[in-house]
């Protein structure tokens, strides 16, 4: 008897990388609360670092453990977008980040969400190189701003804000590419009848 035929496959969503992605989302609320309350800057920095590192770790593990999944392909970028947007908004409300950065991120994400809902693609678009760089730049910028919450490290906040502006620009470039890909793919699929 073939052992593989009797094995119970795990559901697409039941993977270690997807668990890490969900945990990353779980860090967002405590980070936002800490930022808005100007409380425990060292803990805020640690949580921001874990938030950023977990994005790289879940992707690495998905590939290394052969656990790349359709659920993860959607969940990971959604977790990134929600996390980055909420943390950036909290930093803006607390006076550490330009509201323009937050509005750029929100506008691009809204355009992507509407396009995704209208086109209803069979699969999520693949993450582009610009999208990967954008995420790294934004997460690095947020981490540096987080570091600047520690009074002795205040000067690194400027570098963080510059990275966030660059990241917001790259977010717009990547978002435009994703919208184009979604629209292009919607024209190649037969319409629902």
UniProtKB/TrEMBL annotation:
<keyword id="KW-0808">Transferase</keyword>
<feature type="transmembrane region" description="Helical">
    <location>
        <begin position="160"/>
        <end position="183"/>
    </location>
</feature>
<feature type="transmembrane region" description="Helical">
    <location>
        <begin position="136"/>
        <end position="154"/>
    </location>
</feature>
<dbReference type="InterPro" id="IPR048254">
    <property type="entry name" value="CDP_ALCOHOL_P_TRANSF_CS"/>
</dbReference>
<dbReference type="InterPro" id="IPR043130">
    <property type="entry name" value="CDP-OH_PTrfase_TM_dom"/>
</dbReference>
<keyword id="KW-0443">Lipid metabolism</keyword>
<protein>
    <submittedName>
        <fullName>Putative CDP-diacylglycerol--glycerol-3-phosphate 3-phosphatidyltransferase</fullName>
        <ecNumber>2.7.8.5</ecNumber>
    </submittedName>
</protein>
<comment type="similarity">
    <text>Belongs to the CDP-alcohol phosphatidyltransferase class-I family.</text>
</comment>
<feature type="transmembrane region" description="Helical">
    <location>
        <begin position="43"/>
        <end position="62"/>
    </location>
</feature>
<dbReference type="InterPro" id="IPR004570">
    <property type="entry name" value="Phosphatidylglycerol_P_synth"/>
</dbReference>
<dbReference type="Pfam" id="PF01066">
    <property type="entry name" value="CDP-OH_P_transf"/>
</dbReference>
<keyword id="KW-0472">Membrane</keyword>
<keyword id="KW-1133">Transmembrane helix</keyword>
<keyword id="KW-0444">Lipid biosynthesis</keyword>
<dbReference type="GO" id="GO:0046474">
    <property type="term" value="P:glycerophospholipid biosynthetic process"/>
</dbReference>
<keyword id="KW-0594">Phospholipid biosynthesis</keyword>
<keyword id="KW-0812">Transmembrane</keyword>
<feature type="transmembrane region" description="Helical">
    <location>
        <begin position="16"/>
        <end position="36"/>
    </location>
</feature>
<dbReference type="InterPro" id="IPR050324">
    <property type="entry name" value="CDP-alcohol_PTase-I"/>
</dbReference>
<dbReference type="InterPro" id="IPR000462">
    <property type="entry name" value="CDP-OH_P_trans"/>
</dbReference>
<keyword id="KW-1208">Phospholipid metabolism</keyword>
<dbReference type="GO" id="GO:0008444">
    <property type="term" value="F:CDP-diacylglycerol-glycerol-3-phosphate 3-phosphatidyltransferase activity"/>
</dbReference>
<feature type="transmembrane region" description="Helical">
    <location>
        <begin position="82"/>
        <end position="115"/>
    </location>
</feature>
<dbReference type="GO" id="GO:0016020">
    <property type="term" value="C:membrane"/>
</dbReference>
């Amino acid at each position: 008897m073939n052992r593989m035929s009797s094995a119970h496959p795990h559901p697409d969503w039941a993977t270690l990388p997807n668990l890490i992605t969900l945990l990353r989302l779980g860090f967002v609320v405590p980070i936002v609360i800490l930022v808005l309350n100007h409380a425990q800057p060292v803990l805020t920095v640690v949580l921001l670092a874990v938030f950023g590192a977990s994005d790289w770790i879940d992707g690495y593990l998905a590939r290394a453990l052969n656990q790349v999944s359709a659920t993860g392909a959607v969940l990971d970028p959604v977790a990134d977008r929600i996390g980055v947007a909420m943390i950036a908004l909290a930093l803006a409300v607390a006076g550490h980040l330009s509201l323009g950065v937050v509005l750029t991120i929100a506008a691009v994400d809204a355009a992507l969400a509407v396009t995704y809902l209208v086109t209803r693609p069979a699969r999520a678009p693949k993450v582009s190189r610009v999208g990967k760089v954008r995420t790294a730049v934004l997460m690095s910028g947020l981490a540096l701003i987080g570091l600047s919450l520690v009074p002795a490290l205040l000067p690194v906040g400027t570098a963080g804000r510059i990275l966030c502006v660059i990241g917001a620009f790259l977010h717009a470039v990547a978002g435009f590419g994703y919208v184009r890909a979604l629209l292009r793919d919607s024209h190649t699929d037969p319409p629902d009848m």
